[in-house]
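Preliminary data (for renewal application), nickel (II) ion complex.
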Amino acid sequence: MAIRNIRLEGDEILKKVSKPVDEINEKILTLIEDMFETMYAQNGVGLAAVQVGVLKRVIVIDLGEEDGERYVLINPKIIKTKGSQEVEEGCLSFPNKFAKVIRPKEVVVEALNEKGEKITIKGKDMLAQAIMHEVDHLEGEVFIDKIIEGTLEVITPNNNKD
Ligand code: NI
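Predicted structure:
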């Protein structure tokens, strides 16, 4: 396992559409392990492969104590969304920016897991938010383009030192 470099705001790859995974081979399994390690190292709760520079439709999510599950979603497809929620959001590719966005309250997604099994996940609240955020990445979309006007907060490191 290895920590990979996270692609940051301004990197053109973040705007590209990721390609479906056609075979879950060693390379994909290593990618998944590395994505988890990279995400945990940054205290993130979700990561899409494009964020480590790989244009494949692979997502990992772990909300930690929120629900204690570790999700791997390969070639995910949103089947249904329901309701909406206004939520605070950030992204490991925009490490100093936070803002409010509107996300569905509930989502149903179909995908393959790392064993190639077809899975269906019903996510609510924070899980629904995370799934939508990461699936957006696979389409080259980032949260900063859909924030509620006036809610952007930019955190400057060391701004409390003056
Ligand atoms: Ni993100």
